[in-house]
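Good morning,

Attaching, inline, the backbone tokens for the sequence recovery test we're adding to the shared suite. The designed sequence is right after.
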């Protein structure tokens, strides 16, 4: 996630870090050079004049812009839903720890539940990013609990099971009334729903064929565009082609980047920072100090 103050309007025109320009620079340069060549040849290919004007490009461009807008809206909806789900994790883990501290007769026992919830958050982050959670789990859990998790594939789901087992143990020991256990099951169920939502987003990409159609249309449009503009605007053709190509290429690249919000690209969610924030707030509720350093942006990028 890009974290930086908004630059002055003039500097904003030349911002490089955090822009998708570096991703689209090769194809943008190739399209512009092709437009320059067509301008020098005055729209001729092997002595054959391509009979095109700006009219079909106006119609196709409008339709293409609508489809790109829909593509970006769909990608941003996935991004925002993912952020909302992680907000739910923050709210419900706080609620569960608060209830463990105020409803259980021996609140000092809430430490075990808190550690499991923190481990769940880190395990979910690692699962979504396909990284190894061993270090975080060893830092937070007992050797027996780590051994139990080592043999399972979906560690966050098992950690939720272990949190539920803690509630069961407190009820069986008479430290938690059955009615209060039901109240504490509600935030646990909400956390489970957030887990399922994150897994759904991570395992269900936007249909590939849909992306292929838009991708092909954009490139064909930008390649043919110089032939439709050369007779009307002449030497300005490469400039206009470069501007239109930049708009379309950038929108497509941005949509492709944020449609998978759990990655580590510049515009993806800062799962490291959010995991640390959840851990810190739960530890503060327990009267502890965060065990890990707070993530800081590197070159305005927070992972």
């Amino acid at each position: 996630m890009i974290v930086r103050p908004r630059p002055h309007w003039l500097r904003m025109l030349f911002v490089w870090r955090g822009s998708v320009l570096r991703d689209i620079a090769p194809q943008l340069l190739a399209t512009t050079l092709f437009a320059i060549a067509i301008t020098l040849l005055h729209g001729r290919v092997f002595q054959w004049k391509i009979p095109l004007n700006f009219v079909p490009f106006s119609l196709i461009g409008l339709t293409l812009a609508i489809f790109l807008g829909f593509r970006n809206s769909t990608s941003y909806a996935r991004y925002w839903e993912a952020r909302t789900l992680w907000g739910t994790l923050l709210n419900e883990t706080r609620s569960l720890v608060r209830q463990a501290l105020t409803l259980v007769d021996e609140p000092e026992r809430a430490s075990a539940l808190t550690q499991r919830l923190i481990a769940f958050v880190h395990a979910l982050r690692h699962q979504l990013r396909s990284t190894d959670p061993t270090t975080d789990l060893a830092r937070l859990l007992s050797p027996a609990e780590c051994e139990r998790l080592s043999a399972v594939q979906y560690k966050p789901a098992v950690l939720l099971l272990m949190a539920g087992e803690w509630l069961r143990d407190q009820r069986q020991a008479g430290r938690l009334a059955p009615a209060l256990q039901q109240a504490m099951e509600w935030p646990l169920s909400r956390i489970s729903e957030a887990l399922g939502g994150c897994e759904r987003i991570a395992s269900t990409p936007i249909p590939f064929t849909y992306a292929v159609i838009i991708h092909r249309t954009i490139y064909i449009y930008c390649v043919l565009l110089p032939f439709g503009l050369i007779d009307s605007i002449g030497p300005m053709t490469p400039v206009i082609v470069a501007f239109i190509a930049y708009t379309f290429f950038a929108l497509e690249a941005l949509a492709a980047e944020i449609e998978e919000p759990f990655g580590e690209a510049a515009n993806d969610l800062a799962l490291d920072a959010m995991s640390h924030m959840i851990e810190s707030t739960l530890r503060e509720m327990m009267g502890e100090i965060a065990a890990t350093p707070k993530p800081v942006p590197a070159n305005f990028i927070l992972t």
